[in-house]
Amino acid sequence: MSSRSNLLSLFLALLPLSSIARTSNNISLGTSLSSADENAPWVLSPNGDFAFGFYRLLDKKDLFLLAIWYAQIPQRTVIWSANGDNPVQKGSKVELTSDGELVLNDHQGQEIWKPSPQAVNASNGRVTSAAMLDTGNFVLKGSLNISYFWQTFNEPTDTILPTQVLEFSGKLSSRLTESSFSNGRFQLRLLNDGNLVLNTVGFPTERANDAYYVSNTYGSGFRVLFNESGYISILRRDGTPLNIMQTSTGSPMDFYYRATLDFDGVFRQYRYPRTKQRNGETAENWSIISSIPRPTEICRVTPSKVGSGICGFNSYCRVGVKEERHTCECPDGYSFFDPNDKYKGCKQDHAVELRQACDLDKQRMSNMFEMTPHSDIDWPLSDSELLTPYDEAQCSIACLEDCLCAVAITRNENCWKKKLPLSNGRMDTSLGGKALIKVLKQDGTQAGKRKKDQGSLILAGSFLLGCSAFLNFLFLLGIPLCIHFSYHKKLLKAQPDSSMLAMNLRSFTYMELEEMTDGFKEELGRGAFATVYKGTLTTDQIIPVAVKKLEKMGIEDDEKGFKAELNTIGRTHHKNLVRLLGFCDQGPQKLLVYEFMSNGSLAGFLFGGLRPRWEQRMRIASEIARGLMYLHEECSSQIIHCDVKPQNILLGDCFTARISDFGMAKLLKTDHSRTRTAIRGTRGYFAPEWFKSMMITAKVDVYSFGVMLLEIICCRKNIVLEQQNYEEAILTVWAYDCYKNGRLDTLVDHEEEALNDARKLNRLVMVAIWCIQEEPSLRPSMKKVTEMIEGAVEVAVPPDPSSFISKLV
């Protein structure tokens, strides 16, 4: 392409959205759409190419996505969805409220999704309407008409379209499978260093593993452009584009173009002819124009040190026959965990026998197993030992006699023994050598064992027949006993409250949870009334969970606390709240099953020794504020947590903060703002009104958050009685003194990162002081707190909180 063409393409890609999307169909404030009709569009783009509304899932006909799809082609290809991880049932509703909020609620009125605050451009005033544009972009229009208040182009799922731009930190997430719209195992990201990368993730989280594709535009990449002519390029900082996807000739007037990160980890560019249907048939389907990586290279990409690689553990990647899509396959002696999701990996068919092999001597192991050869297969990062010089026969024997060896690779007199799980598997004719797979023998040894077992069965059967009269007597006697025990077992079995089931929570039996936790073996934490254990929930995938077992309480308190936590968190759905997956209510056994938070509590994060980075702490503070704002102002019934403290803030894989432990929470009806209740909470985080016979409001959480915000800022506990300087023993008192005397450097222990961000440090300390005011009416709401933390509103100079605080110790 000539330099003039490059400049023209760049100019088209950078045109203001208002000029690119010349026409749109509008949605007025206060209108809504129900999912009652199949593929019901709420609005079409003016040219009729795109539809926005409820899309019925073909494999789950009673579930819907809020989505954008191509309206003119039979395939109805979805290019964006709001709730891919959480489809809704018939009767759900999307609404553009009179306040300008776009909200998706399920059939029970539970909020499922709304645009993330980070993607909203609040500087454009208030929302006046929504529109579906001819470009495939659904937008919320702002009153100032500077730019859009929010747009789907800024929050893509797995697809980008012509005129769409991917900015720094922008990403695409693949689907889990070809038919599932849940986030999958691959990401495309534009890093802040200027590189466009493809990487696997630590599924089911979004933690990025090593990249298997890098654009090598370090320091120069600025944004990814998809222009109207179908060219995808990385815009360099000097203004020149670097084309990364080649296109064949074809006018955008004749073809639809899209680029999708597919479920198999390949970023592909597609086109589809705009030719209308003739005689009920179309000219062709979506065709692939180009891809990253190329089909012949995907199985050879740089292996990732963490994770399974392109295919799942214990499988290997094989280039497809037509070189359009690779496949994941299992070696001999292994089979897929899920035949419908072959990227999930493979399991050993005889795992028990292989584990038991460590109790056998070398000779018996050699008689029990054999090595099956496969050419050109390797798992390059699963080595346990290298033996050299070793020929194929020696390598085979070495693996057979090693109970921990699952596979051996022999090449050029080198023998690599491999351990489980096998990762980064690939079939590549350029590798050479052989993979020797250890499998259970199916020869006479096993047959002899089976004959011996059969002989034992015949002998046992003869004995049993000889005693048949006695056994019949025992059988008849056992029938009434079985009926008796079965009846009492049913009495003990949980009868789930219908209100609990209505919240889409799974009801577990105590036996199921005992099995999930391996007999409540691994303890994660212990409190006054509950112990939390780690477990594993196996559905279509293996999910780590935290099982909270209520104990050491009276029957009335136990039931009350259990119902409170279940009913409270079961009604919530927010990314900064720990998600409740299910419960067990079986007689005296009361348990709650939560998603597992791999990085523990905020208390361990702040007070564990190493000082976390300032930027990371500030992000966590903002996330906690947004979670509390949701509880106080965005739930159908206002929820007061009543025990906000670092121990009740859990951190996910990416250190995302999530509020937990709703055992003390208090629900308020929509027409109430205050309540009377017994003292709840933890010393040091109590709001003063708990001691004053005052009505309790959501401001008690604001107070506790203010204390915790100071702990986040300073990385120290609120009360440290062993402090050498007594005036520093109570953080809330000392923090105000430091603020008043201009000694914030002392407050943060001269932390360089914090002092380099002095304006934010000063602002956050001021916010915390406002939160810990003794008079509840002086404290801001959590919405105001969130806005102040994020710099959306100015923070006034706070008054002295009160000398009353020092009496709380």
Descriptive notes:
It is a single-pass type I membrane protein. One of its GO terms (molecular function) is carbohydrate binding. Residues 18-153 form the Bulb-type lectin domain. Pfam families: B_lectin, PK_Tyr_Ser-Thr. The termini are far apart. With 809 residues, the protein is of the alpha+beta class. It folds into five domains: 1-155, Agglutinin, subunit A (Orthogonal Prism); 156-290, Agglutinin, subunit A (Orthogonal Prism); 316-445, no CATH class; 504-595, 2-Layer Sandwich (Phosphorylase Kinase, domain 1); 602-808, Transferase(Phosphotransferase) domain 1 (Transferase(Phosphotransferase), domain 1, Orthogonal Bundle), CATH 1.10.510.10. Helices cover 24% and strands 27% of the residues.
**Rounded Rg:** 31 Å
Q: Give the number of helices.
A: 18
Low-confidence stretches: 1-23, 277-282, 444-476, 479-502, 553-557, 668-681, 803-809
Q: Major sheet, described briefly? A: 6 strands, mixed
Q: SS-based structural class?
A: alpha+beta
The CATH C-level name of the largest domain is Mainly Alpha
Q: What is the total number of structural domains?
A: 5
Strand content: 25-35%
The residue-averaged pLDDT reads 81
CATH topology of the largest domain: Transferase(Phosphotransferase), domain 1
The share of residues in helices is: 10-25%
User: So, the CATH homologous superfamily of the largest domain?
Assistant: Transferase(Phosphotransferase) domain 1
Please report the distance between the alpha carbons of the first and last residues. Answer: 73 Å
